[in-house]
Amino acid sequence: MKRIKVINLGLALALVVLVVGVVSVTADVPQGGTLRVAIRNDVQNFDPAYLVDATTSGVSFSVYEHIVARSHDGVISPGLSESWEISENADVYTFNLRRGVKFHDGSDFNAQAVKFNFDRIMDPEVASHAGELLRNNIDEIVIEDDYTIVFYLEEPNAAFIDDVLIQNATFLASPTAIETLGEDLSRNPVGTGAFKFHSWTPDTEVVLARNEEYWDGAPNIDQIVFRPIPEPTTQLTELRTGRIHFMTVVPVEQKAAIEADPNINVIGEPDFNVRYLVFNFNQEVFQDINVRRGLHYALDITELVEIFLEGVAERAYGPLPNMSPFHNPDVLEYPYNPDKALATLALSGWARGSDGMLRNEDGETLKFTLTTPLGRYTKDRELNEAIHFQFRQIGVDVDIEIVEFATLIDKLRARDFDLAYIGLMQRTGDPTAHLDLMYHSEGWANWGDYNNPEIDDLLNQGKRTGDPDERMRIYAIAQDLIMEDAPTIPIMNEFYLLAYRTEVKNYTFGVARPMDYSKLYLGE
Description:
Blueprint: E1 16-19, E2 34-39, H1 54-60, E3 69-70, E4 76-77, E5 81-86, E6 92-97, H2 111-122, H3 131-137, E7 138-145, E8 148-153, H4 160-165, H5 175-181, E9 195-201, E10 205-210, E11 223-228, H6 232-240, E12 246-247, H7 255-259, E13 264-270, E14 273-279, H8 289-297, H9 301-309, E15 313-315, H10 338-346, E16 351-352, E17 358-359, E18 367-373, H11 380-393, E19 397-403, H12 405-414, E20 419-425, H13 435-439, H14 453-464, H15 468-485, E21 488-501, E22 504-505, E23 521-522
Parallel strand pairs: 2-11, 18-19, 18-20
Antiparallel strand pairs: 1-5, 3-4, 5-6, 6-8, 7-8, 9-10, 10-11, 12-21, 13-21, 14-20, 14-21, 15-21, 16-17, 22-23
């Protein structure tokens, strides 16, 4: 029986007004102190137009905000917008902005500031990585008054907020700072967030200071110091000795020992990711659906996840993360069954010879290479060595190729692979952030060049319909069809894990907001 944790991401997509109160912590808690957080590498560029790496994004989360927020469990929630309305066919989005908010430089947050930021990202001369995405989605931005702004879309998009409005490039920066700082904004971010930028000493630390005027109440701590510490073992030593409060890379093999330390909390839950094997449809052998299905039956995925990833991942059931509210719990499965694997392969003429190898009528072996990265995903090498073994158990002539992640990406982009182990992680469970990228014929993460017009049509329908129930129905069908076609073999959903010291109090963890330090405090 599947045990799947589902959270409600709840986009209201009929004509609706969403108004939710923002709750602040009012308890009498200790004030002051410095929170020290380890990050895997140094920050790069704080200008939202060019902010592309995960580390800088995580630090920027305390400085910048979006036009709307995500709650810790991923629900789209009020923040800089107190409420919003979405037209019935999801092509007009109206945002009612929060009054009285100031940027860190004292300038006003208002509709003019929002439009300035979006116009800048959409400007081809700015050359932002997100410029084309915004231009393809947004037809016009209209200011109705100082605190009401309307986005008219090129076509209906039920996932516009998730797809477009919440990403690195749409962090809202002070227009005054953009104009006065110019390129120096990359080193001096100015937003509306709970913390103000103080300083950045490259390869040493980034320091943020409490925003006393924060609209949701000033934080309890005085400042945050982010320290680049690439090695997980070094992060752990620093955590145990109290020189940092948070470590963001938890070594899986040491997880149990860390959990046994009475001074450390370890926390985590399944993230919005899928790690999977992708077939390259440019290889003739993988154009055969019986081959793809047969190889799926050959893997004992449940056992693989239990052996190598117990406590840090769960088996993936289908092409969407199990955490997604759109996940179909009844999606088609391929239970481990070596006999059925051989029977399915036999439908296309593959049979085991006297040497135990699968061969076609011409005597050729079923031969391909499995390519996996080294150290990019938890236990990726060990997991794929076991997958390699299970394929060989039914007679597949499979080689394994272990490469650096950058090399794997190069191979994927060049379509220079047979079967590859890769992952996709997002901050949302909306299908447009997963299925559209991986399985639509035009998706940038469709590494295997899978092309099914019926899937394309379903994904286009799901994106454009404004009816939440209809979206759920469409995506349930799409997931079943994808699994029937078997362009990939979903393996696991990896957990987001972090560890922090017990003197950190009132910290709320959520995979959508793991680096939210606005309400915590330092105690004993």
